[in-house]
Amino acid sequence: MLSNERSTTEAPTADLAAPAVGTRRNDDRIATQAMGALEREKLLPGLRVRLSVEHGWLTLSGNAAHTVERSAAECVVRYVPGVKGVINDIVVMADTR
Predict the structure, then answer these.
(1) I want to staple 64 with a disulfide (CB 3.0 to 4.6 A). Which of 11, 38, 69, 93 is the partner?
(2) Is 28 contained in some domain?
(3) What is the rounded distance in angstroms from the CA atom of residue 90 to the CA atom of residue 75?
(4) Which pTM value belongs to this model?
């Protein structure tokens, strides 16, 4: 897959203890937790992305310098409790790796 193509992944189904999703309150909680997870991830210093959550589906958008940053951001948020799936619309600006 080219680095600027949209990717969509579903979260693992093993997280049966996750709270029900779909309400605005749960979506807001998921967004807050996902943003915190991205900010704590040491592989993503300075990555500036936007995220939104609708009915448990998390969408990432923005720009990344390298493909590895784009992939790492998706991996980090995929395991946030309550996430049903991730739509990765992050665009890689230049990848020299």
Answers:
(1) 69
(2) yes
(3) 13
(4) 0.74
φ, ψ (nearest 5 deg) of residue 72: -65, -40
Q: Which two tokens stand for residue 65?
A: 């310098």
Question: Has residue 61 been placed in a domain?
Answer: yes
Q: What does the pLDDT look like over 6-58, one tens digit per residue? A: 666 665 444 444 555 447 889 999 999 999 999 998 878 778 899 999 999 99
Q: Could you tell me which of 39, 38, 91, 34 has the C-alpha nearest to residue 57?
A: 34
Residue type, 73: A
The residue written with tokens 């951001």 in the block is 73
Crossing angle (nearest 10°) for helices 67-78 and 24-40 = 130
Q: Assess if residue 12 is contained within a domain.
A: yes
Residue 1 covered by a domain: no
